[in-house]
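S1.2 Input.
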Amino acid sequence: MKVSIAHQEGMKFEAKTSKSSFVIDCPVISPVEYFLAGIITCSATDIILIPKNQGYSVKNLVVDGDVVRNETQPCKFNTLHLTYSFDSDADDTTAARWVMASLETYCSTINTIRDTTKISYSVTHNGKLIKENEALISGGGMKIDMGEIEACPS
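S1.3 Output.
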């Protein structure tokens, strides 16, 4: 993947990819907002495609992202909470699995930041809250103490 950024005027930049181009207008939308939108869109596409591949459909999908950043430079993401709301023709367990599959496996952008950002999520499926403030199983820069684990001798 390659992206090229060219200064246009003022604080406007043109981003060119192998497929398209778009203008980043910094006074209107900051690069960090574009970054967060890209992260959210990556996962949102999974929530459409995974069910489709399984013979289900998703409607009324909305994914909100709430980030807490460092107050001093660098103002990196410390926490990210994603709130998924959608309707589907699947049961709640299957719907929750789609979100977990996106966050834990398929979403490249989430997996790019997961070692430095604590990520949590909530899911409302068919109008019912089915997951609330769940943390990702791994990542977030945390070390999980699994205690002593017996292993085979090498």
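S1.4 Remarks. The longest helix spans residues 31-53.
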